[in-house]
Amino acid sequence: MVLCFLSGGFAHAVGRIVGNIDGISRDGDHYFISGWACQQEQTKSIAVQLFAEHADNGVWKDGPILAERADLYSEPAVQEACHDRSFGQHRFVIALPYSYGPESKLSVHGIRVVDGVPNDLIAGSGTKLALRPLDLPYHALPHLTGAYRALAAHPGVFVTMDELKDLAARINRSRSYSMQRFGLLAKQIEHDLASGIDWGVTYSGSDGGVYQYAFSYEPQDQHDAEIRAALKLAPGAKAPAGAAVVAARLSLYAALLKAGAVAPAEAPGVDESSALAKRILLAWADRGFRDASGRFLVLGSFDRDGHGRPQAGLGLVLGRGIIYSVHAQDLLQSLGVLNADEVGRLDAFHANIFELMRQSENVLFAGVGFPYSECSRYTNIATHGVVGMLAAARLLNDEQRLKAVIFGGDPAAPVLVPWLRLFDHVVYGESDGPSAECVNNQESDSQASLLNHHDYQTPIAALGEISDRFRNANAGQSIGYSMLTLERLLDAAEIMRISGFDPYEYRGAHGQSIETAIQYYSCYAKNAGFYKTVSEQNSRLCPNAAQYYGKLVTGVERMLLIGAKRFPGNASITDLEADARQEASTGAFSNDAILFGKWRD
Fold first, then answer.
1. CB 87 within 8 A of CB 72
2. What is the pLDDT of residue 235?
3. Sign of CA dihedral 384, 416, 376, 227
4. pLDDT band per the 50, 70, 90 thresholds, residue 343
5. Model pLDDT for residues 169-206, shown as the tens digit of each residue
6. Is residue 380 over pLDDT 90?
7. Reported confidence tier of residue 375, pLDDT bands at 50, 70, 90
8. pLDDT digit string, tens, across residues 200-218
9. CA–CA separation, 11 vs 13, rounded Å?
10. Three-class SS string for 391-402?
11. Band of residue 31 on the pLDDT scale cut at 50, 70, 90
12. What global pTM score does this model have?
């Protein structure tokens, strides 16, 4: 019997479950299946369960192995098959556990969202699946202008030689802001050289957290004990902290000296700074990220939970550091301190890390065995992965890979979340907001949201606002996490700009841009103040402000400096430039090597 329900005097049949498994795709050392599924007449995305034959004590059984959601963009043909005229999302892509592949007998069950019909298998279930490229349809996005400009000379990833020389000239101007900042950088370099850390110590295990704190991220005193244990350091030995970050800082300092910057009296020189940077890079290139046989790790090496699932989130861990090791190599090559063999070893290292990040980002997009929401795919994790891949591709002067990361659609290097798609989701536009499943709180009050979940998002967002997780985990992370995402968008923009594209003028599908993002958060810097608490009294005029009441204005100052340089006609940004200079001169990230000098004097 087919049940019906009444609405406005008309009876409607409850739609049945329909769909299709389109095929199976290989990416590195693991497989994905993709297709579509829906309940007809329903806009809401349905859950799908993946079933497969598996051995249990020598007996082959058929049972569920994981669940996901069919909640990805679906093209008009799928909309028509679903009888959905409201443009719901009904496609899926599922990362398979490592023991499953083309020979597995795979089935997909669609799970109804309205009762009255059974959950059902979709077409293609239980059949031999055809191999197909890993990709998905996506709605059309505005065009990004530009064409690839080959890397003819180093440096050419985050900075060019002309820009280094310009910065050196600004450093040499008496009492300039750049002179002040270079003096602080020189003090930091002196501290780095005298740290007593054995930078030859590296890591090659399967714990992403160790890579994050030993290689990728520097401010980490609370992780010292675990890093020391993982690296088996002798009592009293100092643990390496953010090796790639330190190498980039040392390399930048040496490159600025070589470009003509005058060092403060008794400050370190080019040779000692570049020598330590080189030692750090080659140690990781030769001994880090490798298995017991000396081969570079593959994604399957990070299956730490033993469930056969590729580990998602490595893009954050690796991208956070690889941008700095790329920057360091690029600068060291410009100094001529790397011979051909050393360049080859470092190139091989960065090419392999590119693949780890690319594959990890695809797994993150597909989920890891539980229904995955749309907003979970477009966060600072994905942003770190994208900028890390862009940096590695540019360093290798690999036009095909770089374009694959920006635009997607390349079967030779599939990237399910290329820059264009990421930007469309991670920066909100006019009358924009997350899908309904991403909204964990129906109120705009951020304090009320803590009763539900710390990563809630409001139903409506403001133009330029950053979509991010952990928005309400604590007062410092709310805006701070968004600024970390924005900083990585700026890092990516610098790579793309030097590579021949124009991300700073790019406008997304809803009018969003890097400029509107910086402008949005400038409102809180202006009204509440840097590192001050947002309240109704000081910030109620900022769009969508209630979600930030009680939160700190964290990390906005450095974004304002590069914003003033790239958007000099925007008074809402430039009016805060003088105050932002002072704030940006202090703190853990004040000597960050990538955006150093990308300000106006």
1. no
2. 85
3. negative
4. very high
5. 999 999 999 999 999 999 999 999 999 999 999 999 88
6. no
7. confident
8. 999 998 888 899 999 999 8
9. 7
10. HHHHHCCCHHHH
11. very high
12. 0.94
Contact 601, 170 (CB under 8 A): yes
Q: Are 37 and 122 in contact (CB under 8 A)?
A: yes
Tokens coding 360: 């990890």
Q: What is the pLDDT of residue 260?
A: 98
For 478, half-sphere exposure in the C-beta direction (CA atoms, 13 angstrom radius) is 27
Q: What is the pLDDT of residue 318?
A: 93
Per-residue three-class SS string for 479-524: HHHHHHHHHHHHHHHHHHHHCCECHHHCCCCCCCCHHHHHHHHHHH
- As a whole number of angstroms, the distance between CA 454 and CA 60 comes to 42
The mean pLDDT of the chain is 90
Q: For residue 312, how many other CB atoms are within 10 A of its CB?
A: 23
Distance separating alpha carbons of residues 588 and 480, to the nearest angstrom: 13
Find residue 115's DSSP bridge partners: none
Distance CA 88, CA 346 (A): 46
Closest by alpha carbon to 549, among 429, 458, 468, 425? 458
Cα(122)–Cα(17) distance, integer angstroms: 7
The alpha carbon dihedral of 480, 486, 488, 490 has a sign of negative
CA 38 – CA 40 distance, rounded (Å): 6
Residue 590 structure tokens: 């004040």
Provide the residue count of the chain. Answer: 601
| Cβ neighbours of residue 273 closer than 8 Å, sequence gap 6 or more | 189, 193, 250, 251, 253, 254, 257
Q: Do 534 and 482 form a contact (C-beta atoms < 8 A)? A: no
CB 367 within 8 A of CB 309: no
Beta bridge mates, 7: 10
Pick the closest to residue 424 from 148, 135, 138, 147 (CA basis).
Answer: 138
For residue 321, give the amino acid letter.
Answer: G
Q: What is the pLDDT of residue 460?
A: 76
Among 496, 468, 460, 465, CA closest to 484: 468
For residue 38, the SS3 value is strand
Summary count for the chain: helices (H), strands (E):
19, 9
| pLDDT at residue 450 greater than cutoff 70 | no
Q: Could you say which DSSP state residue 214 is in?
A: I
State the greatest distance between any 2 C-alpha atoms of the chain, in Å, as a whole number: 89
Closest CA to 535 of 554, 547, 549: 549
Q: For residue 78, which of 68, 89, 65, 67 has the smallest C-alpha distance?
A: 89
Distance of CA 409 to the CA centre of its chain: 19
Is the pLDDT at 158 greater than 90? The verdict is: yes
As beta bridge partners, residue 131 has 24
User: For residue 11, what pLDDT is reported?
Assistant: 45
229 φψ region: left (φ > 0), alpha (ψ -120 to 50), beta (else)? alpha
Q: Is the confidence at residue 4, as pLDDT, over 60?
A: no
pLDDT at 66: 87
Distance CA 67, CA 237 (A): 46
Q: How far apart are CA 331 and CA 335, in angstroms?
A: 6
**Cα 454 → chain centroid:** 19
Cα–chain center distance at 136: 19
Rounded Cα distance between 205 and 479, Å, is 33
